[in-house]
């Protein structure tokens, strides 16, 4: 008999450049002709062919028990039309196995099927962000994420990653299986 995971409720935080800084960037509209600067997405797409596309998602309720990270690429996500959406987030935990020390013990480190090493995300470190209006988020390499999630029945999003990100650079972590937890978003 399967045991029902414990529900952990998280209150959504509005994604701003300041509140999201630890995980990536929030990019908002800038005037036409403005030169490249710190307000622009700083991308790392040099490990393959970039892919910019629109994804259509249905039934992405405000709950999750699994997160994913991409160790080799930044990722950008934004809703078509600027409607509110949500993203579960935990900070990147990719580990260079040569830098394992007293703080990071080798027995805690896991090897991804993609070949890199990482520490599993810590449930107490998970946050949820609400992204509202005409802006997008850029996730730093290795940032754990769940979503896009939303209240509507369906939504479209633009996505910038590599052409093979979801095949060659996709590392999941199940809080349900590993920690007995399911996150529920409160807004």
Written description of the protein model:
- The protein has two helices and 17 strands.
- By secondary structure, the chain is mainly β.
- The longest helix has 5 residues.
- The protein is globular, with a radius of gyration of 17 Å.
- The model has no long low-confidence stretch (mean pLDDT 92).
Features:
four-stranded mixed sheet, 187 residues, mainly beta, 43% strand
Q: What is the number of beta strands?
A: 17
Give the end-to-end Cα distance, rounded to a whole number of Å: 33 Å
Query: How many H/I helices?
Result: 2
- Percent helix, as a range, is under 10%
Element order: H for helix, E for strand = EEEEEEEEEEEEEEEHEHE
- Uncertain stretches: none
Structural class: mainly beta
Q: Hey, roughly how much beta strand do the residues contain? A: 35-45%
Strand order of the largest sheet: 3-13-7-15-4
What does the largest sheet look like? 5 strands, antiparallel
Output the radius of gyration: 17 Å
Kindly report the average pLDDT value.
92
Q: What shape does the CA trace take?
A: globular
Q: What layout of secondary structure does this protein have?
A:
Blueprint: E1 6-11, E2 13-14, E3 24-28, E4 50-58, E5 63-64, E6 66-69, E7 75-79, E8 85-90, E9 94-95, E10 110-111, E11 117-118, E12 127-131, E13 135-139, E14 144-149, E15 154-162, H1 165-168, E16 171-174, H2 175-179, E17 181-186
Parallel strand pairs: 1-17, 2-12
Antiparallel strand pairs: 3-13, 4-15, 5-17, 6-16, 7-13, 7-15, 8-12, 8-14, 9-11, 10-11
